């Protein structure tokens, strides 16, 4: 079984994520221990609540440095919900702007939609050669709970940097639902709450470790 650490920084559905990953076949530890988080085969960064509060908690346990250290060695990281959002450059929420980890350029901001939060099941538009969504039909639905998202993908492709695979969903307008960028992957939705579809996605991630 793959050894996976769920980073405990005071935010996220830790136990539901732990149970989902265990069911998917992982040996899971929930901890903020730096060494364990760096050395595990996979690291999951969950997150619920406000962007700024999640970043504050992440910085308190050195989570930004853990993510940097893992990625510098090509070691997989999976962000979930606000755990995905904090990987971007900044978040703007209720007039409060906070810096993120800056792994990708972009701003997390309020969706333009008649009904918020975006809560419930929604389809996504994934690239045909996606790793995370392999084996899942185009009409597969995942569970979302959020009012803020990345509405514009800002990382430009180049000859030296492979273009990340971006999955989109729509609620009032298109937004980034998932990103696959080498060792760094993330979902705006909650795979641990997405039933069989979420379980398949987590197994796909574990198999790629």
Automatic annotation (TrEMBL):
<dbReference type="GO" id="GO:0004359">
    <property type="term" value="F:glutaminase activity"/>
</dbReference>
<dbReference type="GO" id="GO:0005737">
    <property type="term" value="C:cytoplasm"/>
</dbReference>
<dbReference type="InterPro" id="IPR010139">
    <property type="entry name" value="Imidazole-glycPsynth_HisH"/>
</dbReference>
<dbReference type="Pfam" id="PF00117">
    <property type="entry name" value="GATase"/>
</dbReference>
<feature type="active site" description="Nucleophile">
    <location>
        <position position="81"/>
    </location>
</feature>
<feature type="active site">
    <location>
        <position position="190"/>
    </location>
</feature>
<keyword id="KW-0456">Lyase</keyword>
<keyword id="KW-0315">Glutamine amidotransferase</keyword>
<feature type="active site">
    <location>
        <position position="192"/>
    </location>
</feature>
<comment type="pathway">
    <text>Amino-acid biosynthesis; L-histidine biosynthesis; L-histidine from 5-phospho-alpha-D-ribose 1-diphosphate: step 5/9.</text>
</comment>
<dbReference type="GO" id="GO:0000105">
    <property type="term" value="P:L-histidine biosynthetic process"/>
</dbReference>
<keyword id="KW-0028">Amino-acid biosynthesis</keyword>
<dbReference type="GO" id="GO:0000107">
    <property type="term" value="F:imidazoleglycerol-phosphate synthase activity"/>
</dbReference>
<protein>
    <recommendedName>
        <fullName>Imidazole glycerol phosphate synthase subunit HisH</fullName>
        <ecNumber>4.3.2.10</ecNumber>
        <ecNumber>3.5.1.2</ecNumber>
    </recommendedName>
</protein>
<dbReference type="InterPro" id="IPR017926">
    <property type="entry name" value="GATASE"/>
</dbReference>
<dbReference type="InterPro" id="IPR029062">
    <property type="entry name" value="Class_I_gatase-like"/>
</dbReference>
<comment type="subunit">
    <text>Heterodimer of HisH and HisF.</text>
</comment>
<keyword id="KW-0963">Cytoplasm</keyword>
<feature type="domain" description="Glutamine amidotransferase">
    <location>
        <begin position="5"/>
        <end position="206"/>
    </location>
</feature>
<keyword id="KW-0368">Histidine biosynthesis</keyword>
<dbReference type="GO" id="GO:0016829">
    <property type="term" value="F:lyase activity"/>
</dbReference>
<keyword id="KW-0378">Hydrolase</keyword>
<comment type="function">
    <text>IGPS catalyzes the conversion of PRFAR and glutamine to IGP, AICAR and glutamate. The HisH subunit catalyzes the hydrolysis of glutamine to glutamate and ammonia as part of the synthesis of IGP and AICAR. The resulting ammonia molecule is channeled to the active site of HisF.</text>
</comment>
